[in-house]
Amino acid sequence: MDSNVSKQVSVIIPAYNEADIIGDTVKAALRIPNVSEVLVVDDGSTDETGEVAKIAGAHSVIRSPKNVGKGGALNSAWRQSKGQILVLLDADLGKSAAEATLLLDPILNDQVDMTIAWFRRPNDPCFKNIDDSPNLSPRSGGFGIVVKTARLGIWLLTRRWIQSPLSGPRALRREILERTGGFAEKFGVEVGLTVDALRMGYRIMEVPVSMVHRPSGRDLKGIRHRGRQMADVVGTLAKRAMRI
Protein backbone atom coordinates (compact mmCIF):
# COMPACT_ATOMS: atom_id res chain seq x y z
CA MET A 1 0.00 0.00 0.00
CA ASP A 2 1.22 3.50 -0.84
CA SER A 3 2.59 5.20 2.29
CA ASN A 4 0.43 8.29 1.74
CA VAL A 5 -2.71 6.17 1.47
CA SER A 6 -1.78 4.16 4.57
CA LYS A 7 -1.58 7.39 6.57
CA GLN A 8 -4.89 8.91 5.50
CA VAL A 9 -6.86 9.84 8.61
CA SER A 10 -10.63 9.92 9.10
CA VAL A 11 -12.25 11.43 12.20
CA ILE A 12 -15.58 9.95 13.33
CA ILE A 13 -17.76 11.78 15.85
CA PRO A 14 -20.98 10.15 17.14
CA ALA A 15 -23.35 12.81 18.48
CA TYR A 16 -26.72 12.92 20.18
CA ASN A 17 -28.30 16.28 21.04
CA GLU A 18 -24.97 18.13 21.12
CA ALA A 19 -25.94 21.18 19.05
CA ASP A 20 -24.44 23.56 21.59
CA ILE A 21 -20.91 22.15 21.30
CA ILE A 22 -20.60 19.98 18.19
CA GLY A 23 -19.55 23.00 16.11
CA ASP A 24 -16.46 23.62 18.25
CA THR A 25 -15.61 19.91 18.23
CA VAL A 26 -15.82 19.67 14.43
CA LYS A 27 -13.76 22.83 13.90
CA ALA A 28 -11.06 21.54 16.26
CA ALA A 29 -11.03 18.16 14.51
CA LEU A 30 -10.55 19.85 11.14
CA ARG A 31 -7.39 21.50 12.45
CA ILE A 32 -5.74 18.21 13.42
CA PRO A 33 -2.73 17.63 11.12
CA ASN A 34 -3.09 14.79 8.58
CA VAL A 35 -6.89 14.60 8.89
CA SER A 36 -8.48 14.13 5.46
CA GLU A 37 -12.14 13.93 6.48
CA VAL A 38 -14.45 14.49 9.44
CA LEU A 39 -17.64 12.41 9.66
CA VAL A 40 -20.38 13.15 12.19
CA VAL A 41 -23.11 10.67 13.03
CA ASP A 42 -26.27 12.46 14.14
CA ASP A 43 -27.68 9.63 16.23
CA GLY A 44 -31.36 10.50 16.15
CA SER A 45 -30.93 13.95 17.71
CA THR A 46 -34.00 16.06 18.40
CA ASP A 47 -32.04 19.32 18.20
CA GLU A 48 -29.93 20.90 15.44
CA THR A 49 -26.83 18.72 15.96
CA GLY A 50 -26.58 17.60 12.33
CA GLU A 51 -27.12 21.06 10.88
CA VAL A 52 -24.57 22.67 13.19
CA ALA A 53 -22.00 19.99 12.34
CA LYS A 54 -22.47 20.58 8.62
CA ILE A 55 -22.15 24.35 8.99
CA ALA A 56 -18.98 23.87 11.06
CA GLY A 57 -17.38 22.03 8.12
CA ALA A 58 -17.98 18.32 8.63
CA HIS A 59 -17.35 16.54 5.32
CA SER A 60 -20.22 14.16 5.94
CA VAL A 61 -23.15 14.07 8.37
CA ILE A 62 -24.78 10.65 8.65
CA ARG A 63 -28.27 10.94 10.08
CA SER A 64 -29.86 8.06 11.95
CA PRO A 65 -33.69 8.18 12.06
CA LYS A 66 -33.60 6.98 15.66
CA ASN A 67 -31.09 6.80 18.49
CA VAL A 68 -29.12 3.56 18.18
CA GLY A 69 -26.43 4.25 20.77
CA LYS A 70 -22.72 4.90 20.48
CA GLY A 71 -21.74 1.52 19.07
CA GLY A 72 -24.45 1.57 16.43
CA ALA A 73 -23.57 5.13 15.45
CA LEU A 74 -19.89 4.26 14.99
CA ASN A 75 -20.76 1.15 13.00
CA SER A 76 -22.83 3.23 10.60
CA ALA A 77 -19.85 5.48 9.91
CA TRP A 78 -16.54 3.63 9.87
CA ARG A 79 -17.29 1.64 6.73
CA GLN A 80 -18.10 4.89 4.92
CA SER A 81 -14.83 6.49 5.97
CA LYS A 82 -11.78 6.44 3.70
CA GLY A 83 -8.87 6.64 6.13
CA GLN A 84 -6.60 3.75 7.02
CA ILE A 85 -6.28 5.40 10.42
CA LEU A 86 -9.43 6.33 12.32
CA VAL A 87 -9.78 8.88 15.11
CA LEU A 88 -12.82 8.48 17.35
CA LEU A 89 -13.91 11.63 19.17
CA ASP A 90 -16.75 12.34 21.55
CA ALA A 91 -19.04 15.15 20.46
CA ASP A 92 -18.70 17.11 23.71
CA LEU A 93 -14.92 17.67 23.58
CA GLY A 94 -15.29 21.17 22.15
CA LYS A 95 -12.04 22.96 21.35
CA SER A 96 -10.05 20.34 23.29
CA ALA A 97 -10.67 17.88 20.43
CA ALA A 98 -7.52 19.39 18.90
CA GLU A 99 -5.54 17.34 21.44
CA ALA A 100 -6.26 14.28 19.30
CA THR A 101 -3.07 15.04 17.40
CA LEU A 102 -1.32 13.47 20.41
CA LEU A 103 -3.29 10.28 19.80
CA LEU A 104 -2.32 10.20 16.14
CA ASP A 105 1.42 10.70 16.37
CA PRO A 106 2.35 7.30 17.90
CA ILE A 107 0.40 5.51 15.15
CA LEU A 108 1.77 7.64 12.31
CA ASN A 109 5.26 6.92 13.67
CA ASP A 110 4.46 3.16 13.83
CA GLN A 111 4.99 2.95 17.58
CA VAL A 112 1.56 1.43 18.29
CA ASP A 113 -1.65 0.36 16.57
CA MET A 114 -4.18 2.01 18.89
CA THR A 115 -4.04 4.88 21.35
CA ILE A 116 -6.42 5.73 24.17
CA ALA A 117 -6.84 9.22 25.62
CA TRP A 118 -5.85 9.44 29.27
CA PHE A 119 -7.42 12.66 30.58
CA ARG A 120 -5.02 14.77 32.62
CA ARG A 121 -6.30 16.29 35.86
CA PRO A 122 -6.41 20.08 36.29
CA ASN A 123 -3.67 19.88 38.94
CA ASP A 124 -1.34 18.12 36.48
CA PRO A 125 1.43 20.64 35.65
CA CYS A 126 1.17 19.57 31.99
CA PHE A 127 -2.56 20.26 31.78
CA LYS A 128 -3.37 22.98 29.22
CA ASN A 129 -6.64 24.88 29.50
CA ILE A 130 -7.69 24.50 25.86
CA ASP A 131 -11.42 24.99 26.40
CA ASP A 132 -12.45 26.96 29.48
CA SER A 133 -16.19 26.49 29.05
CA PRO A 134 -17.66 26.26 32.58
CA ASN A 135 -19.68 23.10 31.84
CA LEU A 136 -16.69 21.11 30.59
CA SER A 137 -14.25 19.20 32.78
CA PRO A 138 -11.53 16.54 32.50
CA ARG A 139 -13.31 14.58 35.22
CA SER A 140 -16.01 11.97 34.60
CA GLY A 141 -18.41 13.14 37.28
CA GLY A 142 -19.32 9.59 38.30
CA PHE A 143 -18.42 7.37 41.24
CA GLY A 144 -15.83 5.27 39.41
CA ILE A 145 -17.70 1.96 39.75
CA VAL A 146 -18.17 1.38 36.02
CA VAL A 147 -14.55 2.32 35.29
CA LYS A 148 -13.25 -0.10 37.92
CA THR A 149 -15.49 -2.86 36.55
CA ALA A 150 -14.25 -2.25 33.01
CA ARG A 151 -10.64 -2.10 34.14
CA LEU A 152 -10.88 -5.38 36.05
CA GLY A 153 -12.78 -7.09 33.25
CA ILE A 154 -10.16 -6.16 30.65
CA TRP A 155 -7.38 -7.37 32.94
CA LEU A 156 -9.08 -10.71 33.57
CA LEU A 157 -9.52 -11.29 29.83
CA THR A 158 -6.17 -9.97 28.59
CA ARG A 159 -3.87 -9.53 31.62
CA ARG A 160 -3.39 -5.90 30.58
CA TRP A 161 -4.17 -3.10 33.05
CA ILE A 162 -5.79 -0.16 31.25
CA GLN A 163 -6.00 3.02 33.29
CA SER A 164 -8.74 4.65 31.17
CA PRO A 165 -10.82 1.72 29.87
CA LEU A 166 -13.91 3.82 29.06
CA SER A 167 -12.13 6.73 27.42
CA GLY A 168 -13.89 7.49 24.13
CA PRO A 169 -11.24 9.50 22.24
CA ARG A 170 -8.98 7.01 20.44
CA ALA A 171 -6.97 6.53 17.28
CA LEU A 172 -6.56 3.13 15.64
CA ARG A 173 -5.65 1.34 12.46
CA ARG A 174 -8.62 0.51 10.29
CA GLU A 175 -7.52 -3.11 10.00
CA ILE A 176 -8.46 -3.69 13.65
CA LEU A 177 -12.12 -3.06 12.84
CA GLU A 178 -11.90 -5.01 9.60
CA ARG A 179 -10.70 -8.03 11.57
CA THR A 180 -13.24 -7.70 14.39
CA GLY A 181 -16.16 -6.78 12.13
CA GLY A 182 -16.90 -3.52 13.91
CA PHE A 183 -17.78 -2.08 17.28
CA ALA A 184 -19.67 -3.56 20.21
CA GLU A 185 -23.15 -2.18 20.74
CA LYS A 186 -24.05 0.92 22.76
CA PHE A 187 -21.70 1.70 25.68
CA GLY A 188 -19.73 -1.52 25.25
CA VAL A 189 -17.68 0.13 22.49
CA GLU A 190 -14.52 0.89 24.43
CA VAL A 191 -14.12 -2.32 26.41
CA GLY A 192 -14.98 -4.46 23.40
CA LEU A 193 -12.49 -2.68 21.19
CA THR A 194 -9.74 -2.87 23.80
CA VAL A 195 -10.21 -6.58 24.53
CA ASP A 196 -10.43 -7.49 20.84
CA ALA A 197 -7.33 -5.51 19.89
CA LEU A 198 -5.22 -6.91 22.72
CA ARG A 199 -6.29 -10.47 22.00
CA MET A 200 -5.25 -10.06 18.37
CA GLY A 201 -1.82 -8.84 19.44
CA TYR A 202 -2.14 -5.17 18.53
CA ARG A 203 -0.02 -2.63 20.36
CA ILE A 204 -1.95 -0.22 22.60
CA MET A 205 -0.75 2.92 24.34
CA GLU A 206 -2.53 5.30 26.70
CA VAL A 207 -1.65 8.91 25.92
CA PRO A 208 -2.04 11.81 28.39
CA VAL A 209 -4.16 14.60 26.90
CA SER A 210 -5.62 17.90 28.09
CA MET A 211 -9.11 17.07 26.89
CA VAL A 212 -12.31 18.13 28.63
CA HIS A 213 -15.90 17.01 28.18
CA ARG A 214 -19.35 17.32 29.72
CA PRO A 215 -19.27 15.07 32.80
CA SER A 216 -22.37 13.14 33.78
CA GLY A 217 -23.85 14.40 37.02
CA ARG A 218 -24.66 12.55 40.20
CA ASP A 219 -28.34 13.29 39.87
CA LEU A 220 -31.02 10.80 38.81
CA LYS A 221 -30.26 11.33 35.12
CA GLY A 222 -26.57 10.64 35.70
CA ILE A 223 -27.29 7.54 37.75
CA ARG A 224 -29.55 6.16 35.03
CA HIS A 225 -26.84 6.84 32.44
CA ARG A 226 -24.25 4.96 34.48
CA GLY A 227 -26.70 2.11 35.02
CA ARG A 228 -27.11 1.66 31.28
CA GLN A 229 -23.37 1.99 30.83
CA MET A 230 -22.68 -0.68 33.45
CA ALA A 231 -25.13 -3.09 31.81
CA ASP A 232 -23.50 -2.62 28.39
CA VAL A 233 -19.96 -2.95 29.77
CA VAL A 234 -20.74 -6.13 31.71
CA GLY A 235 -22.64 -7.59 28.76
CA THR A 236 -19.76 -6.91 26.37
CA LEU A 237 -17.19 -8.38 28.76
CA ALA A 238 -19.37 -11.46 29.24
CA LYS A 239 -19.59 -12.02 25.49
CA ARG A 240 -15.79 -11.75 25.18
CA ALA A 241 -15.33 -14.14 28.10
CA MET A 242 -17.42 -16.76 26.30
CA ARG A 243 -15.04 -16.60 23.32
CA ILE A 244 -12.04 -17.81 25.33
How far the N terminus sits from the C terminus, by CA atoms, comes to 33 Å
| CATH fold category name | Spore Coat Polysaccharide Biosynthesis Protein SpsA, Chain A
**Fraction in helix:** 25-40%
What's the CATH H-level superfamily name? Spore Coat Polysaccharide Biosynthesis Protein SpsA, Chain A
Return the structural class.
alpha/beta
- Record the strand order, biggest sheet: 3-2-1-4-6-5-7
Q: Report the sheet-strand fraction.
A: 15-25%
- Which stretches are poorly predicted, pLDDT < 50 over at least 5 residues? none
Total strands: 7
What does the radius of gyration come to?
17 Å
> SSE string, helix = H, strand = E?
HEHEHEHEHEHEHHEH
- Please tell me the total number of domains: 1
Work out the helix count.
9
Main CATH class: Alpha Beta
- Tell me which CATH architecture applies here: Alpha-Beta Complex
Q: Give the overall shape.
A: globular
Please state the average pLDDT score: 93
**Assembly level:** single chain
How does the major sheet shape up? 7 strands, mixed
Describe the structure.
It is a single chain. The protein is an alpha/beta fold and 244 residues long. It has a single domain (8-241), classed as Spore Coat Polysaccharide Biosynthesis Protein SpsA, Chain A (Alpha-Beta Complex). Helices cover 38% and strands 17% of the residues. The chain is built from 9 helices and 7 strands, in the order αβαβαβαβαβαβααβα. The protein has a 7-stranded mixed β-sheet, sandwiched between helices. Helix 8 runs parallel beside helix 9. The longest helix is centred in the last third of the chain and has 22 residues, at 220-241. The radius of gyration is 17 Å and the shape is globular. The two termini are 33 Å apart. The mean pLDDT is 93.
